[in-house]
Write a structure and sequence with these properties.
The chain is mainly β and 123 residues long. The protein has strands at 2-7, 10-12, 18-26, 28-39, 46-51, 57-59, 67-72, 77-82, 91-101, 110-113, 117-121. The N and C termini lie far apart (40 Å).
């Protein structure tokens, strides 16, 4: 079984910063891409940023220049550094990873989601 556990959310003032972490654990053979998504009340879940196993990154236009995604492959962990936060960044942030498990190894990958962490930007 594989689990993704997120941490680092909370309440921050406009202009502030937060760093989210997401650690994958369990019967992992390899992790392909990892990413962060968010869902605000009444809105669809949207991609915030993603990173491949080789380090190639992709960002939503709304966060470019403010957010940075990174990963530590040795720790099976992905991070999201969020700077210059504003009220529109308020949402539940979810981690997603594409993982090959020890049971299937490289032949099959599965999509896993974390439980979500709340980020609230408010004065």
């Amino acid at each position: 079984q594989v689990q993704l556990v997120e941490s680092g959310g909370g309440l921050v003032q406009p202009g502030g910063s937060l760093r989210l972490s997401c650690a994958a654990s369990g019967s992992i053979f390899s992790i392909n891409s990892m990413g962060w998504y968010r869902q605000a009340p009444g809105k669809q879940r949207e991609l915030v940023a993603s990173i491949t196993s080789g380090g190639t990154t992709n960002y939503a236009n709304s966060v470019k220049g403010r957010f940075t995604i990174s990963r530590d492959n040795a720790k099976n962990t992905v991070y999201l550094q969020m700077n210059s936060l504003n009220s529109e960044d308020t949402a539940v942030y979810y981690c997603k990873a594409i993982i090959a498990t020890m049971a299937t190894m490289a032949s099959t990958t599965y999509q896993y989601w974390g439980q979500g962490t709340q980020v609230t930007v408010s004065s």
